[in-house]
Amino acid sequence: MNETMSIFNELESEVRSYCRSFPAVFTKAKGWKMWDEDGTEYIDFFAGAGALNYGHNDEKMKRALIDYIADDGITHSLDMATKPKAAFLKKLNEVILKPRKLNYKVMFPGPTGTNTVESALKLARKVTGRTEIISFTNGFHGMTIGSLSVTGNASKRKGAGIPLTNVVTMPYDKFGDEEVDTLRYLEQFLRDNGSGVDIPAAVILETVQGEGGINAARMEWLQQLERICKKYDILMIIDDVQAGIGRTGTFFSFEEAGITPDIVCLSKSIGGYGLPLALTLFKPELDIWAPGEHNGTFRGNNHAFITATAALSYWEDPSFEQAIKDKSKKIHAFLTKLVDSYPEMNGCVKGRGFMAGIGSKVDGLAGKIAAEAFKRGLIMETAGPEDEVFKLFPPLTISDEDLEKGFAIIEESVRAVLGVKEPVTT
Ligand code: PMP
Questions:
Q1: How many angstroms separate the alpha carbon of residue 307 from the centre of ligand 1?
Q2: How far, in Å, is the centroid of ligand 1 from the Cα of 53?
């Protein structure tokens, strides 16, 4: 072990995780590449777990931030009024919300994903006066107690150390037996007075489950869930912390389904540059908060407002969205070919857009492939309850050339793990 790594071993808690999967000391990053202290170059198919959809150290965002800092612009301001916050709100409204005909109020909770989820759950309970929430199998919503209570993963839930209450878990689309209509099942529980399930304040879900294994709900399923929510007067919360900001091909992951959630949670890439920021968006009639009823010291992260505003400029040019869609097709074509070419993987292609991966029924295979990929200069993580999925999550801005280089590394890694000598797909 090198000298820097031993510092983490000695001084940092056992809770650390990514530095175990990617054992290198990183010094520099640009776009979709990272370098370690020995100068080794890596292609980044991880993108800060979805916090770096525009890549590392984007030039325009960096310039705007440097100018702002050099000018002694205010850094920390709780929720006081500042120019960068005003500029961000205006741009979000003009570039994102208005063109999509979304009339949402914007709330700034504390600057992380779990903060926006906590605020959404609180608001739904406050508005409806009900206590229960319906969550879905394999959903992931964060590490604080409220968010954990709507999260499926057993080991993460266990970490809470207390009972996680006031939540009923229902099957997500295609959970278990793929033939089962999981929404018919859900509706039966709402309809039948003997079901033991109270009408909840809200349902909370990801349209594509990130940590839970890149499970993409079908559009019809999302549309039907919205209809059920309307019928039973239940609020629909979409947690777009990971699937949002272009990851599935559109700014919000629910656009293709044509649904309008009552509450939307955003974080990760909304700051643009990897700086912490979170938003909770909701329909204006839900805005019954008392001033300061939900607050947080770091809501006014002005540096993040500066980079977030610059990031939204990407969405002013329709070719950005088109490029994401074109590259997504390449990702899915590659993954399909890989699954077909290496039946020993016993794999299936998962996900939507730039949120894709392969789920393998071979125990431990996905982790081994990710470890081999790292040795070959590609950063890629795993997902799913048994870490059975390897997950392609490059920045949306990645060049075709490096996307393909990444594919080649993945195929080499698959071959190395399976002991296959010759390339099959190329
Ligand atoms: N919701 C989803 C869908 C997420 O993927 C995550 C993080 N992986 C969170 C919430 C929690 O975000 P944070 O780690 O910033 O609290």
A1: 20
A2: 14
Would you say the CB of residue 240 lies under 6 angstroms from ligand 1? no
- The DSSP secondary-structure symbol of 273 reads S
Is 67 part of a structural domain of the chain? no
Query: Do the Cβ atoms of 377 and 42 come closer than 8 Å?
Result: yes
From the list 328, 155, 363, 173, the residue with the least C-alpha distance to 250 is 328
CA of 242 to the centre of ligand 1 (A): 7
Pair (294, 201) in one structural domain = yes
* pLDDT recorded at residue 426: 54
Decide whether any atom of ligand 1 lies within 6 Å of the 118 Cβ: no
Q: Which of the four pLDDT bands, split at 50, 70 and 90, describes residue 28?
A: very high
Q: Judge if 42 and 105 occupy the same domain.
A: no
Q: Is 328 in the pocket of ligand 1 (CB under 6 A)?
A: no
Tell me the mean pLDDT in the region 12-35. Answer: 97
Q: pLDDT digits over 302-331, tens only?
A: 999 999 999 999 999 999 999 999 999 999
What is the distance of C-alpha 309 from the center of its chain? 20
Question: Tens digits of per-residue pLDDT, 68-114?
Answer: 999 999 999 999 999 999 999 999 999 999 999 999 999 999 999 99
113 lines ligand 1 (CB under 6 A): yes
- Shared domain check, 206 and 150: yes
Answer yes or no: are the C-beta atoms of 97 and 282 closer than 8 Å: no
| 244 CB-contact burial (10 Å; exposed 0-12 / middle 13-18 / buried 19+) | buried
Our answer on whether the CB atom of 267 is closer than 6 Å to any ligand 1 atom is yes
User: Does ligand 1 have an atom closer than 6 angstroms to the CB of 142?
Assistant: yes
pLDDT in tens, 333-372: 999 999 999 999 999 999 999 999 999 999 999 999 999 9
Residue nearest to atom 5 of ligand 1 (CA): 242
- Residue that terminates a domain, selected from 285, 316, 347: 316
**Domain housing 342:** 3-58+320-418
